[in-house]
Amino acid sequence: MTDSNGKNRERKLMVVDLDGTLVDGNTLHIYLICGLKRLLRRGRIIKAASIAGLITLRAVHAISHRTMKFGALKYIDESDKRLRDMFVSRVGKKVNIKVMELIDQWHADGNQVLLATAAPETYVSWIWHNDFLATPVEHNPERIEMRADVKADAVRVYAAANKCNIDTIVTDHHDDLPLMKLARGSVYLVRPSAATMRHINRQFGNIVILS
Can you say whether residue 110 is alpha, beta or left, with left for phi > 0 and alpha for psi between -120 and 50 degrees? Predict the structure, then answer.
């Protein structure tokens, strides 16, 4: 990209979170519900029961969220087209319009947008058709999630490789604090909780709240 004087300049990068930010809700929960319904409709009772059991164990804090997530994902047939259609439809109804307008404007200005999320990469490409970073499901024996410092480091690598300045962060949660610290411009918080505001208020003067 060139400026008004014809000189090359780095593009600005806006990094957008998925759950609670671009989507009003938790996409993993939506995916698991859709997966359960499809398994039951196809008579895959044992697999459906296995997912339900993992969800129950997580609900009573008997297992970690990560154990539940990776354990449940292996029972869902991601090649099921009806599952995909159901999931995409449900997520589409929960897209945050204000965040989407911000993304569209950012693209219109010739800048770069990157979706960065702890959600599994299994379904992210179904709902986002640009560059993204997500939690690998295959070839991830340590079950490392794309969150906190891991996400911040991955975004830094992406920005360097694509010659972008990390300018703006859009998120809803203080888990992204390491990422926010990389922002040269603004930090947009989408419906932040009181806990998130307590973590962030004293560290940033460039906060914009999106309701």
Answer: left
pTM greater than 0.85 (yes/no): yes
What is the chain's length?
211
Instruction: Round to whole Å and give the CA distance between 204 and 181.
Output: 8
Residue 182's closest CA among 157, 202, 161?
A: 157
Residue 170: closest CA among 155, 160, 150: 155
> Helix, strand, coil shares of the chain as percentages rounded to 5?
45, 20, 35
Tokens of 190: 């989408």
Which of left, alpha, beta for 11 (phi over 0: left; psi -120 to 50: alpha)?
Answer: beta
pLDDT digits (tens, 9 = 90+) for 111-154: 999 999 999 999 999 999 999 999 999 999 999 999 999 999 99
* Selection from 196, 81, 62 nearest residue 187 by Cα: 196
Cα(111)–Cα(7) distance, integer angstroms: 16
